[in-house]
Amino acid sequence: MEVSPLYPGFKPFNISVGKDITIAGVRSGTGPPLLLLHGFPQTHLIWHRVAPSLLDSFTLIIPDLRGYGSSSKPAATNPDDHSLYSKSTMAADMVALMHSLNYTGRFYICGHDRGARVAHKLCIDYPEKVEKCILLDICPTKAMFLAARHPFAQLYWHWFFLAQTSPFPEDVIAASSAAFATKTLAARELYDEAAYKAYAAQFEDRATVHAMCEDYRAAAKEDMEEQVADEEAGRKIQCPVRVLWGKEAVVEKLFDARAEWRKVCVDGALDEEGSYAVEGGHFIPEENSGDVLKCILDFFR
Predict the structure, then answer these.
(1) Dihedrals φ, ψ of 161, to 5°?
(2) Which helix (H) or strand (E) is 39 found in, with range?
(3) Residue of 64, 271, 282, 291 with catalytic role
(4) What is the DSSP string of 41-78?
(5) Are 287 and 50 in contact (CB under 8 A)?
(6) Do 299 and 242 touch, CB atoms closer than 8 A?
(7) Among residues 114, 135, 113, which one has the least CA distance to residue 123?
(8) Cα angle vertex 23, ends 246, 130, to 5°?
(9) pTM strictly above 0.85
(10) 74: closest CA among 63, 85, 87, 60?
């Protein structure tokens, strides 16, 4: 992959993490490793307003999740099996990536949206790998699905649309990719123009659109099943965790974020005083990079 002008001085990587799966991204910096994970419908570019101020404090590893950007986009072969995009599979990608980059010990993670869900599962499945974790603008998947009534279903309509059986949502998006980008990305002025164009272009690529849909199909099936199994087995997040969410976003409007995260963390793991609502909406790394940066520098030191 080519390095975007939004990441001057960063080095690209394209690393095999398993059979026919490569994870692409960029890295740079000095210090302990920090893995930054993006959400839907974005790519590693979401961190471009945060990353420059972290280079003297951390070695940044900023990948595209499987299915997004320049990473592999495996196609589902069974309409009832979305495990290629389960958060446990995507978390395993990230652990393999870090190992391939010679980060075999513990590392920090900050994830937004889908990336935060991957980070959540990584904390559960690989507790020995995570030093501390920051999660941006989510509550646990199970908690959010169980709240699936008005107005949540209206505000998070894409969860239910993208999870419909293939190829219905893929076909709809193919017929109206620009309109779908406009709807899901909210106000265009939130973004650097190069970043916006990169995000919008993903809706023009059939393989990426299919991968995005599989991500949400997995959320509705495999991810839910995994969270139920984790809950029944008593598996919880063990590392210190902070959560930030947007004052104008769904988490603030419909959930008690601290209470929901307290349920899935061991006692004392959630930094409740350091978890709070920030100015802006859902796309926190680009809407309010200052609060994200402040949180990372404070909590990860």
Answers:
(1) -70, -50
(2) none
(3) 282
(4) T--GGGGTTTGGGGTTT-EEEEEPPTTSTTS--PPPSS
(5) no
(6) yes
(7) 135
(8) 55
(9) yes
(10) 85
Beta bridge partners of 112: 136
Identity of residue 75: A
Query: In whole angstroms, what is the distance from residue 38 CA to residue 43 CA?
Result: 6
Closest by Cα among 223, 32, 232 to 146: 223
151 in Cβ contact with 298 (< 8 Å):
no
Would you write out the chain's pLDDT as a tens digit for each of its 301 residues? 899 999 999 999 999 999 899 999 999 999 999 999 999 999 999 999 999 999 999 999 999 999 999 999 999 999 999 999 999 999 999 999 999 999 999 999 999 999 999 999 999 999 999 999 999 999 999 999 999 999 999 999 999 999 999 999 999 999 999 999 999 998 899 999 999 999 999 999 999 999 999 999 999 999 999 999 999 999 999 999 999 999 999 999 999 999 999 999 999 999 999 999 999 999 999 999 999 999 999 999 8
Q: Alpha carbon of 71 to those of 13, 60, 184: distances in Å?
A: 10, 18, 21
The residue annotated as part of the active site, out of 38, 64, 82, 113, is: 113
Residues, the chain, total? 301
Distance CA 181, CA 106 (A): 36
pLDDT digits (tens, 9 = 90+) for 192-223: 999 999 999 999 999 999 999 999 999 999 99
Annotated catalytic residue 282:
yes
Spatial neighbors of 128 by CB under 8 A, at least 6 apart, are 106
Report the helix count and the strand count for the chain, using DSSP H and E: 14, 8
Catalytic residue at 82? no
d(CA 172, CA 181): 12
Phi-psi region of 21 (alpha: psi -120 to 50; beta: other; left: phi over 0): beta
Distance between CA 110 and CA 127 in Å, rounded? 15
